[in-house]
Specification:
The complex is a heterodimer.
Chain A (H helix, E strand, L loop, with lengths): L8 H7 L11 E4 L3 E4 L7 H24 L51 E4 L13 E4 L17 E7 L7 H4 L9 H10 L5 E5 L12 H14 L4 E4 L7 H11 L6 E5 L5 H11 L2 E5 L4 H14 L7 E4 L9 H16 L10 E2 L8 H4 L14 H19 L3 E4 L2 H15 L18
Parallel strand pairs in A: 5-6, 5-12, 6-7, 7-8, 8-9, 9-10, 11-12
Antiparallel strand pairs in A: 1-2, 3-4
Helix pairs in contact in A: 4-5, 5-6, 6-7, 9-11, 11-12
Chain B lengths: L5 H5 L15 H9 L17 H11 L5 E4 L6 E4 L16 E7 L4 H13 L2 E3 L2 E3 L3 E5 L5 H14 L4 E4 L3 H11 L5 E5 L4 H11 L3 E4 L4 H14 L4 E4 L6 H19 L10 E2 L11 H17 L4 E4 L4 H15 L11 E5 L8 E5 L2 H13 L4 E6 L6 H7 L4 H10 L4 H4 L4 E4 L7 H8 L2 E4 L7 H8 L6
Helix pairs in contact in B: 4-5, 5-6, 6-7, 10-11, 14-16
The structure holds cobalamin (B12) and iron/sulfur cluster.
């Protein structure tokens, strides 16, 4: 069992510095969480000072959000719901003046053609299995759409937090949470797990990009070792997004992480996926199969991984691409929903757990711009509140399409997303609320 | 819809291929009936008396599985329900979820008017038009019919948005109806105790009514059946929205079950569904936590089958994601989202005005166009034909190229040398790699603009007019 921690207020004060949100000039967050850096970052002290009052005010609210999210440690099994059988006789033809409610039985069938199970994939390996993780995480295994009553959902959703191998420029709202660890990936990973409730961490080896620092694969692999030392949760290893360099970098990283069952991010059609697949097979890892919003491309890549590269089914997770709320989420949602439905109905090229680069939500201008660029728009209000909820709703939407694993960045978003997905999953106990007279509620 | 092939619909049409409906053949029109892109009444001949029976039969066959219910009147009427599928990619979802924000009758009158005005004025530009919210729900918190009537009256005077009257007291609802009956308000709600009186009101005033049976689908169905038997099918179902924990999970299950049963043909409960994310405020004291959670609950039930909902938070950080997730779910996946390629004038451009390039993907074009227009930048803007693909994907996929840009400009009969004094083109920051090629192809100076068009104004201040070389 994986223990989740309650957030302490003291920890929150760090997380609340995110309110010195500056604009995100110079950063684009793309598909498989890659960050393109085109400019320097840095907190403007004058701005921070000016925001001082607002920050303290906002921080109080954010603290409250976190408080509501101190959820219990153990996950409970999703309970199955049975239908109450009333068994009353059907009423006879009614007359317009009716004194008693007509009896009626409500019935709805389970979906019949959801016959295939989504593949279960385990990430991380404990000492018993040749790794050094304290616990493992299993995703997938669904027999129905997420949280549906048709069949129990065997595993809850999980969140992996992003860690980078060099200081990067990112949304200030996000960056402020990591300012103290930005030069130290191992500490960064620790903080994500200890303070921000990450189930996993993703180490992005972006400095390997020839256009950034061209860090040799061997050196980058050392960072992977550091992170594996620093935390005992399963990890994801990401490349820089450079299609020429990534296969080499991921292969080397896979080698040093032998036995740990990491998720290698990612194989795609536009690079040497064979090399990445081979590294996964040779060293016992899982491959992230990443395509861009196209169900047939996803089938093709999965097929190639299985048939051509002999990657076992239990070692594939797919990332069909995440577009942000307002920026193509309609595509991304339906793409995932179609993939999941096809999987449940037996298309065995699509029966895999899914992963989302939810971080992409920070690319939406609504998440980071100070105010609307359009004078006709109603006031957008403080952006401090807009960023996290943009990431939350983007993730929540995809969770309903069947997404299993979320790659995220902002601590508040992680907390709320976990709260809502675990509520729907059935793992959150809370006081029952009597809504029968909600109209009169004082708010 | 009871039929699913054009052939089945065709059998009922006049079969003359007269073309009045704008289609070449009756068969083509039948295909539009099946994908719901045309209405049967667009075939004028079938409205003639001799086809009356066929018209009625086909109308019944074409009726959506989930009944459509109207709230409000005139231009501001809200239609809810009317869906035929469980997944948007199977067709599309019809009639966007309607968002009602609350006011209450113990509110100070001035505040009430301000709040109503804020709700009706809220707007956000997106893909060529404004996203808005829809309704006002008046809650009776005083339990006093006179007070309630006064509040409703004030709302009616302030806005022509549709209204929901909220109370479990028949006398209160009646008082509210008296001052709003010509606005076709939605009654909220009939429950296990008051249903007889509420049914009388709904029938007497001929208004839509909500049935409220928290976590009791059997009771909900009984009520729906009973109301239908009494003569009204203008029903909205509220299975209760419990805000947290296992109860929220159960609420989710109830929504899925209701809609699935309705789509699968259980006519007795095939009505629009109401969600009340407002109840998040019963679980959280802190307003930001409550707003966040309310937005989360609203999003769940916008995605999964809520047709109308009552909300409390009017904070922009709540409304903005709410209206966007609704747009996300209700965007018609069958429609190409593009604008006509070509030259567009923003403001009143002259020979000194900048020339900008973008794509004909609607989201891209309208974002850029509105950013320019709202900053009062007079310019020429080209929507290059990229098959409706945005800048970055079009550069990656080869739909936005130097030759396409050249062709786009030439096709509009525009001559950069003659029609401008600067012979300069500004390309999107995300198309920076095309700079050299565009220079070669067009012989013009090419400047690379910012990555986000929201930054064009600041960029212009620094970079326009271009330095003479
Ligand atoms: C939705 C999407 C798609 C949709 C496209 C839908 C459509 N109608 O455009 C689909 C599924 C079709 C798609 C396909 C592909 N995609 Co795609 N897609 C995206 C996604 C998720 C969002 C893009 C988007 O809509 N942005 C919003 C619009 C409004 O942005 P925009 O057009 O760029 O406009 C902004 C700016 O450019 C600027 N701007 C616009 N005009 C102008 C003009 C001037 C003068 C200025 C100054 C500024 C300016 O302001 C605008 C507002 O901010 C992005 C990833 C992401 N999260 O960003 C990937 C992404 C763009 N796709 C990518 C790729 C590679 C592809 C494919 C090639 C994948 C494949 N191998 O098949 C195909 C290509 C398809 C084709 N071209 O035919 C890559 C591009 C990588 C790169 N930089 O080269 C991205 C970045 C994902 C990634 N990380 O790999 N994609
Ligand atoms: S108007 Fe009616 S009769 Fe004429 S072509 Fe269209 S469908 Fe056929």
């Amino acid at each position: 069992m994986h223990m989740t921690k309650k957030m302490k207020l003291s920890q929150l004060s760090n997380m609340l510095q995110d309110l010195d949100v500056e604009s995100m000039e110079g950063v684009t967050i793309e598909g498989d969480i890659e960050l393109n850096i085109t400019g320097g970052g840095g907190l403007d002290p004058a701005l921070a000072y000016a925001l001082g009052h607002e920050i303290s005010h906002v921080s109080l609210h954010m603290a409250n959000i976190a408080r509501m999210l101190g959820f219990p440690a153990e996950q409970l099994l999703a309970s199955a719901f049975g239908m109450a059988e009333a068994g009353q006789p059907r009423a006879l033809q009614a007359s317009p003046k009716i004194q008693e409610l007509l009896a009626s039985k409500f019935e709805v069938a389970k979906i019949e053609n959801w016959k295939s199970q989504i593949q279960e994939v385990t990430l991380g390996a404990t000492s018993g299995d040749g790794g050094s993780r304290k616990s493992t995480i299993t995703i997938g295994g669904e027999n129905a759409l997420p949280y549906y009553f048709d069949a129990g959902m065997p595993h809850r959703n999980h969140v992996t937090l992003d860690v980078f191998d060099m200081p990067i420029s990112m949304a200030k709202a996000v960056k402020a949470n990591y300012e103290d660890v930005i030069n130290d990936p191992a500490e960064w990973a620790k903080k994500a797990v200890r303070d921000f409730n990450a189930d996993m961490v993703t180490i992005h080896l972006i400095s390997t990009d020839p256009l950034i620092k061209d860090t040799p694969a061997k050196e980058a692999a050392k960072v992977v070792e550091d992170v594996l030392q620093a935390v005992d949760v399963p990890i994801v290893i990401g490349g820089s997004g450079n299609p020429e360099k990534d296969p080499e970098v991921l292969a080397k990283a896979a080698e040093v992480a032998e036995g740990e069952r990491v998720l290698l991010a990612s194989a795609s059609l536009n690079l040497d996926y064979e090399r990445i697949a081979k590294a996964a097979v040779d060293y016992g890892h899982v491959v992230l199969s990443w395509t861009q919003l196209e169900i047939n491309a996803q089938k093709e890549l999965n097929r190639k991984l299985m048939k051509q590269c002999n990657v076992p089914r239990e070692s594939i997770v797919v990332d069909p691409t995440t577009a942000a709320l307002g920026y193509g989420l309609d595509y991304a949602y339906s793409n995932m929903e179609r993939i999941r439905l096809a999987g449940l109905m037996g298309d065995d090229e699509l029966t895999f757990p899914m992963s989302s680069g939810t971080t992409n939500a920070w690319g939406a201008r609504e998440a980071w711009m100070v105010s609307s660029p359009l004078s006709q728009d109603s006031d957008w209000g403080p952006r401090e509140y807009r960023g996290p909820i943009w990431e939350i709703i983007t993730g929540l939407t995809l969770s309903l399409a069947g997404n299993d694993l979320f790659m995220m960045m902002h601590p508040t978003s992680v907390q709320v997303l976990k709260e809502v997905t675990q509520t729907l999953y059935g793992a959150i106990e809370s006081e029952e609320i009597d809504i029968s007279n909600w109209i009169g509620a004082e708010v | 819809m009871k039929i699913n092939s054009p052939l089945e619909a065709y059998k009922f049409l006049p079969g003359t291929n007269c073309g009045e409906c704008g289609e070449l053949t009756c068969m083509a029109f039948a295909a539009h009936l099946i994908d719901r892109s045309k209405k049967l009444t667009e075939c004028k001949p079938i409205l003639e008396d001799k086809f009356k029976k066929k018209f009625e039969e086909l109308t019944a066959l074409l009726a959506p599985e989930i009944r459509e219910v109207e709230i409000g009147v005139g231009d501001r009427v809200s239609k809810i329900g009317g869906d035929d599928v469980l997944y948007r990619h199977k067709l599309t979802f019809f009639n966007q979820t309607q968002f009602a924000y609350d006011v209450w009758d113990t509110m100070d009158e001035k505040e009430l008017v301000e709040r109503v005005n804020y709700i009706q004025d809220f707007k956000k530009f997106y893909v060529g038009s404004f996203l808005n919210v829809d309704m006002v729900a008046v809650r009776c918190t005083s339990n006093d019919p006179a007070k309630f009537a006064a509040a409703v009256k004030k709302v009616v005077e302030t806005t022509d948005m549709p209204i929901i009257l909220c109370s479990f007291e028949p006398a209160v609802l009646k008082a509210g109806l008296e001052v709003s009956k010509d606005r076709n308000p939605l009654l909220y709600a009939a429950n296990r105790d008051n249903w007889k009186e509420i049914a009388d009101l709904a029938l007497e005033y001929d208004v839509p009514v909500t049935l409220f049976a928290p976590d009791d689908l059997e009771l909900l169905k009984s009520m729906a059946k009973t109301f239908a038997a009494m003569g009204t099918e203008k029903l909205v179902l509220d299975p209760g929205t419990f805000p947290t924990g296992k109860q929220l999970r159960q609420t989710f299950t109830n929504f899925i079950k209701l809609r699935r049963a309705g789509i699968e043909g259980d006519r007795d409960i095939a009505y629009p569904i109401m969600a009340v994310p407002f109840t998040a405020w019963m679980a959280h004291d802190d307003p930001v936590s409550a707003s966040y959670w309310e937005t989360v609950v609203a999003s769940i039930f916008t995605i999964k089958y809520g047709d109308i909902m009552i909300l409390h938070s009017t904070e922009p950080y709540a409304i903005l994601p709410e209206i966007h997730i609704r747009d996300t779910m209700y965007t018609d996946p069958r429609k190409p989202v593009s604008v006509d390629p070509g030259m567009y004038k923003v403001g009143e451009p002259t020979v000194d005005s900048p020339v900008l390039i973008t794509t004909n993907f609607a989201l891209t074009y309208y974002t850029v166009e509105s950013d320019l227009a709202s900053s009062k930048i007079d310019c020429y803007l080209w929507a290059i034909d990229t098959d409706g693909i945005g800048v970055e994907a079009a550069v990656a996929g080869g739909q936005l190229t130097a030759s396409k840009i050249k062709k786009g400009i030439e096709d509009s009969g525009f001559d950069l040398k003659k029609d401008t004094t600067h012979n300069t083109i500004i390309i999107p920051g995300l198309a920076a790699r095309l700079q050299g090629d565009v220079e070669d192809e067009t012989g013009a100076n090419v400047m690379v603009g910012p990555a986000d068009s929201g930054r064009i104004p600041g960029w212009m201040d620094k970079n326009w007019p271009p330095q003479k070389k």
